[in-house]
Input
Amino acid sequence: MRPPRALWVPFALGRPLGVAGDAEFQKGVLRASFAMLQNAVEPTIEDYPVEAPVESGSSEWSCPVSFPVADKKSISARLLAEINLMAPWSAETRAARGRTLFGVTGARPDQVEQVAVALGEIADKGNVTEVPQGDISWQFEMPLLIRHLVDDLRTFYHESMAAQPGDNVPNHDALNDWIFSGTALGDAIQAIAQHLTRAGDGASLMTRGFLVPEGHLAGGGSAFPTPAEMNKNPKI
Amino acid sequence: MVRLSDLNDVEAEHMRVRASEMQPVPPAAWITPKPLKDCTVAIVSTSGLHRRGDAPFKVGAIDYRLIPGATDFGDLVVSHISANFDRSAYQEDPNIWFPLDRLREMAVDGEIGGVSSWHYSFMGAQPNHAALSNAGEEVGRLLAADEVDVALMVPV
Output
């Protein structure tokens, strides 16, 4: 892309207008963008000089709900237990907002458990090629569906956090550190990443890259295919 | 766009590599629009947003989705492929990616002339810009036919 006028903003990924729920802050960004229509006389990139308020990192924010310590139960069982713990909080957020982002997989907003069962079974059984059973008309094929099962569940987890007490707004790192520090969802993602590695085909390895945020793959390194894996799969 | 220093090291290096591989894009025609208070504005998003009933974006999608100007945010979902940006701010306030309410308010206040009846959404994280040229030019023709004066392009 090479737009004739571009405003560079210093905000975190996922926040191009700066601050959620702050209409005046957002309009400030828009007004600075639109001002270039009148002021710029040649292709221009301008820096926006206003920083967004700092959000809380992992050292300032923690999930107020305690989850059971990981035990010998299956990931599916733990995932369902987590979902049940968080369901009232998510319902509060959905009611307050009057909407949910949940459902990109094809699931209805009330089919959170079915999505959790689908993801949990993939984690427990390691089948990354067959579409999960059930009455949901999935909108993606495997293995890419896994990526969006996770996204729907993260939507639900984020909704549950949003309703809980406290003014701290967690940033992307804090949310990822929480998910990957012992939740059943984080454990499911890591287990599935290993299954995708074992599958070893190009689509599985790329799905692993789309599944795990950079910096959070168990064992370290990028979740995207390594040079050695790419050499084995020249089509990646 | 975020500072590279604010990204995870692995992600920042990935961005550096991708930036180094990008091919030059020729400059667009330079157009000086009419006064902003007379301009109709449309949003062009690369956040992978679309209506629930639309086919979701797949990996490397180079097509686009229409989003009606009268859309309700509850009717939108996102199938962007990247796990490296946070959706929680959008969940709280969709205007942070897709500032439709803000444009409506600015139109009521007379800051802009109006809000387009249609907006457009693409999948971001595109390594090959040339592959998007046909869809991009098509959207440009649609915007022009709809008498849109300003395309507000919002990456995520």
Helices of chain B lie at 9-21, 88-92, 100-108, 133-145. Residues 9-21 of chain B form the longest helix (13 residues). The radius of gyration of chain B is 16 Å.
